[in-house]
UniProtKB/TrEMBL annotation:
Gene3D superfamilies: Phosphatidic acid phosphatase type 2/haloperoxidase. It comes from Lactuca sativa (Garden lettuce). This is Phosphatidic acid phosphatase type 2/haloperoxidase domain-containing protein. Belongs to the PA-phosphatase related phosphoesterase family. One of its GO terms (cellular component) is membrane. The chain crosses the membrane at residues 94-113, 119-139.
Amino acid sequence: MYTVYTGILFSVLITGVITDAIKDAVGRPRPDFFWRCFPDGKDFYDQLGNVICHGDSKVIREGHKSFPRSFSGLGFLSLYLCGKVRVFDRKGHIAKLCVVFLPLLFASLVGISRVDDYWHHWQDVFAGGLIGWGPYAFFRALEESRPTIVETNVLCEEIEELDNNPDLRLNDVEIGIR
């Protein structure tokens, strides 16, 4: 059970750091930013046409943190739990799949509610999901690019065959050495 709590903590912390850094760097306004900037609904501008916000400064600062959505770590948590509870070990326990899909369901429901409540744009939710699944895609591609054990064994056998059979060796002319 300790590893489950460690996985939850790790996924939340890592994703929190990544998404907060992106939120501070991008600063995309939330859909309800107008009401954060002008709580009474009356907008103000200076002589040059620049907006003068008269809302609470903390609320306005939080209004610039829409992109990306922060619950993306639950996708990583789902993959982590998938490995820890050994979902695909052919033992047929449906409860294992429920444990794995629970974080994804929670993240989906939170994302839909945030878009519905005008706290995030749908693009923010989509980008948050990509951040959650991005590490999986990266490491999966890295794993597929590595040679398999069978390919490595075949290559080693071919090298041994070349070393043991002098007729198969390349002579100096074929190698290009003069």
